Amino acid sequence: MARSALIDNAPQAVLPDEAPAGTGQSVPDPAQPPHSQSPSHGETWVEPRVPPRGDHPGIGLPGRRRMAQALFAAGGALAAYPGPAAAIGPGDHVLAANTSAEKLLDALLGRRSGELRLAIDSALAGSPAQLQPLLLPMHATGSPEANAPGAGSGGMPDQAAIELLVLPFPDADAALLLGRDVTLERTLRAALVDSRQRYKDLVEASSDFVWETGPDGRFVFVSPGGALGYRAEELIGRRPEEFAVDASAEASDPAFPFNARSTVAKAELWFRAANGEPACLVASCRPVLGPDGECRGTRGACQDVSERRAREAEVARLRHRERLLAYLVRTIRYEVDPKNAATAAAAAALPALAAEGCRVHSLNEDRFAVVTECGGAAPAAEAEALAALVAGETRVEQVADGRALIAVPIRHGRRLAGALALWRTAGLGAWDEDDLFLVAELADQLGVALQQIASQEALATLSRTDSLTGLVNRRSFVDELEQRLAGARPRGALLYLDLDNFKPINDRLGHARGDAVLCAVARLLRDCTRGSDLVGRLGGDEFVAWLADIDETAAATKAHEILRRVAQDLTPLSAGDGEMPGASIGIALVTAGAPTAGAAGAGGVADTAAESADALIARADGAMYAAKRGGKQRFVIAQPAGAATAATSAAS
Questions:
Q1: Please, what sign has the CA dihedral across residues 148, 154, 158, 163?
Q2: Angle between helices 306-333 and 433-464 (to 10 degrees)
Q3: Taking the domains of the chain in order of start, what are their residue ranges?
Q4: Which of 26, 100, 276, 340 has the greatest count of CB atoms below 10 A from its CB?
Q5: 13-49 residue pLDDT tens
Q6: Which long-range contacts (CB under 8 A, 24 or more apart) does 367-371 make?
Q7: Per CATH, which fold does 319-459 belong to?
């Protein structure tokens, strides 16, 4: 507020004994303080704890007011006081106040703190006091900031800070309250503290190396995180050139950033890290100048770009290798079949690595199998190298018999899928870093190829096997049997097995128990047959087995063995109702000789040169149903094709 405005607006208090005539206003009792009158709604009055003093018996309340008002009148000592000012008499009587203090007094005296009470009492007793800034609602201070747009929301504080000085005014037996609005000062101070803290946090959190050197060129400040593996305290007091890779050259270089007398931007330096390794730094700095322009040191920041430079160097090396790698990739990229791709990759590796030979192995159950090979014969040391890879070695290099061998694992994901072995004349020297890179890349490519080969084999297995039992399924069994029957002079027996009393198990004990029974039958059929025999599941509870190169006697013996195992292995899985699980078996014989008609029970053979696999299965199926009609848990040998009867032989 301008000085003239303060003068013009100086309050002219109405004295108790000078009420304007005709106003109809009652004159308040001088003995009662204004705040002890009935408060308006929402206000709170505090009863004074200090009774009016009688130090000046000749000066009443009106006199005190006149003396106080003289301070604020035009030409008075406080007429131009820029802040809130008031004279407070005993009993909290407001003797006089300027405009800035009117709203402040309502808030101040209405909810006065104990500290303010003691200060006023002290001033009334003749001792001055100064209070810490009091925080009051912005609208209560009457300051210009209170009416500014956005006050109390976001950028502007919603409380005003008023610093009060309480002085004795003995002539009027009063206390002078002189206030100073320090809101802006406090806000600026808080903003400065916040800014400094923000800068400090950013410096500490930054991955850069922030520093300052003094006039003597030594570090006087280093960011708390230190740099190059050194702690901050290990760097302070030392010269930066001590850490340079070429200390003498840096010390004599006028452009050395740590001693620069002008701004330096992105200068590249090589320093020695704490671990002894060279580190590349990019430095930017500016000099610290004194009042007279003299240089007092340098401030700046360094960024460690060692990893970036290493990556750039690696990229350059990779570009050099790209031609060889592209050659390998182009050789195999158009191969659709993964095995052909593996063969092409092995062949391309020979000229790229000056190798004499190459082998690609797949690994299954800790046993290596050659997928493809090219070039000369593998050295004897290959077997030992492959065993070392299975034991966990990541690379094996050996020199023997004038040849240098390298073997590396082929992985798919984390799984060891195979191995790659290459060999060449030992006179070419050891496998260098570029060779190792290409070998590793080739192994990566082959890892995908081996996985595709394994996937194709798995799909082939799934397509030809029964998912529950793992036996050959009906289609694959028929196809395989057709091929075996088409061979020169086939001879053997086809056993067709159907379970007895299987339905009660499935119905009463559930499908899980039924599946367990089927898997048990599959296991016992594998146990009772040879590895060269063909065993399959046609569907449901029907199983078949082709036993090559056996006659009728051997077939009957095998049927007896299977029936015994069925009774033994399936009894624990039965429904427990007296109907024990069993099997009925039909046998159809095949011989390369001419057909012979045998009597019932003697068995017969048929010339099956023209008999298909489906026809042979049908003959065995008919014999199986004859066994069921004969009482189950038995086998029947089918007569040659076209015969009306079949011989039966039961086994319990």
A1: negative
A2: 50
A3: 3-146+156-187, 206-304, 319-459, 474-650
A4: 100
A5: 333 333 343 334 333 343 344 433 333 333 333 333 3
A6: 368/418, 368/419, 371/339, 371/342, 371/418, 371/450, 371/453
A7: Beta-Lactamase (3.30.450)
Work out the angle at residue 203's Cα, subtended by the Cα atoms of residues 201 and 208, and round it to the nearest 5 degrees: 145
Whether the Cβ atoms of residue 95 and residue 65 lie closer than 8 Å to each other: yes
Cβ atoms of 172 and 89 within 8 Å: the answer is: yes
Between vectors from CA 81 to CA 78 and to CA 83, what angle results, nearest 5°? 130
Helix, strand or coil for residue 637?
strand
Is the C-alpha dihedral spanning 229, 230, 232, 235 positive or negative? negative
Q: Write the secondary structure of 139-196 as one string of H (helix), E (strand) and C (coil).
A: HHHCCHHHHCCCCCCCCCCCEEEEEEEEEEEHHHCEEEEEEEECHHHHHHHHHHHHHH
Sign for the CA dihedral angle at 122, 126, 127, 128 comes to: positive
- The 10s digit of each residue's pLDDT in 400-442 is 888 999 999 999 888 899 999 999 999 888 898 888 988 998 8
The pTM of the full predicted model, rounded to 2 decimals, is 0.40
Tokens of 592: 């390369």
Beta strands in 273-375 (DSSP E): 278-289, 295-304, 357-364, 367-375
Q: Where are the beta strands (DSSP E) in 6-45?
A: none
Alpha-carbon distance 274 to 499, whole Å?
79
DSSP helix/strand/coil, 218: coil
Strand partners, 107: none
Which CATH number is associated with domain 206-304?
Answer: 3.30.450.20
Average pLDDT value for residue range 267-273: 89
Domains 319-459 and 474-650 share a fold: no
Instruction: Determine contact, residues 614/565, Cβ cutoff 8 Å.
Output: no
Sign of CA dihedral 373, 374, 377, 382: negative
| Mean pLDDT computed over every residue of the chain | 79
Q: Which residues pair with 181 in a beta bridge?
A: 162
> May I ask the CATH architecture of the domain 474-650?
2-Layer Sandwich (3.30)
* Longest CA–CA separation in the chain, Å: 160
What is the enclosing helix (H) or strand (E) of 323?
helix 306-333
Give the pLDDT score at 404: 93
